[in-house]
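cron nightly-structures :: item 1 of 1
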Amino acid sequence: MQNYQMLADYNAWANRLLYSAVADLSTEELHRDTGAFFGSIFATLSHILTADRIWLNRFTGEGPMPRALDERPYDDFEDLRAARLEEDTRIIRYAQSLTAEKIERPFTYSPVGSSEVLALKLWPALTHVFNHQTHHRGQVHAGLTGLGKPSLSLDVIYFVRGEGQQWL
């Protein structure tokens, strides 16, 4: 459980850094297609939030449950940023509630747009959530550097050596 709690804290930290860098973009830069899977930086950030909401709803039965992976729940960057902060808080609270028994329990869900029911232990799904965010944050980071913006240090090790020292 400690690993998931650290990853939840790290995740919130990395998202704050990334959103701070993105806040400096013009509207045109924010919505420009940077070649990422979801196109623009804004669309990619929207996807990360959407996917997190889907998974957290599956885990808890609470919160928004988007119906599509490319859903854009907000048109305004500041609204998206506020929602990201709220979702990161929910993820941290959820990670703090985990026990060894909970992460080993069978977990079932249906993929978006499918009636197929899949089953696995909870821990692989939790691992996916954090890996998924890292993957798409990397796409946003590439978009930022492609726009000539400064590179960010988003590695876990930078987090634990700085703000996340409680995890050392």
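cron nightly-structures :: done
The CA atoms of residues 46 and 135 lie 14 Å apart.
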